[in-house]
Amino acid sequence: MSSRRPEKSYADAVASAPKDAPANSDVTPAVPANVIFKLLGFTLAMVAAPIGMYFLTVNSIFSGNSTWAGVTAAVAANVVLFAYIFVAWQEDQGERAAEGKKAQ
């Protein structure tokens, strides 16, 4: 015989598996909710701010010059990106200070 089949099928192995699993499993999320909300907020800002700045400035400030309106939109995207990095840096500084106090 070139191929040997196991004596138990997969269905039999699953059916005869022990059913007494531990009841105290950890169901907490891997990422806290405030981190998810912060990321969603900055994602929305990264989409809305440049598009909004472009359409706000293309006709009202730059009189139809789409190049300068595009530059304004790029600056707005960079401002949102810088704000996200700054908020993440501040959060990290707070965590480090808390760990330092906890270690003392």
From TrEMBL:
GO BP terms: vacuolar proton-transporting V-type ATPase complex assembly
Keywords: Cytoplasmic vesicle, Endoplasmic reticulum, Membrane, Transmembrane, Transmembrane helix
Source organism superkingdom: Eukaryota
Subcellular location: Endoplasmic reticulum membrane; Endoplasmic reticulum-Golgi intermediate compartment membrane; Cytoplasmic vesicle, COPII-coated vesicle membrane
GO cellular component: endoplasmic reticulum membrane; endoplasmic reticulum-Golgi intermediate compartment membrane; ER to Golgi transport vesicle membrane
Key word Transmembrane helix present: yes
Membrane topology annotation: Multi-pass membrane protein
Compositionally biased tracts (Basic and acidic residues): 1-10
Keyword Transferase: no
One Pfam family this sequence matches: VMA21
Chain ranges passing through the membrane: 35-56, 68-89
Region Disordered: start-end pairs: 1-25
Family: Belongs to the VMA21 family.
Role this protein plays: Required for the assembly of the V0 complex of the vacuolar ATPase (V-ATPase) in the endoplasmic reticulum.
Protein known as: Vacuolar ATPase assembly integral membrane protein vma21
Gene designation: VMA21
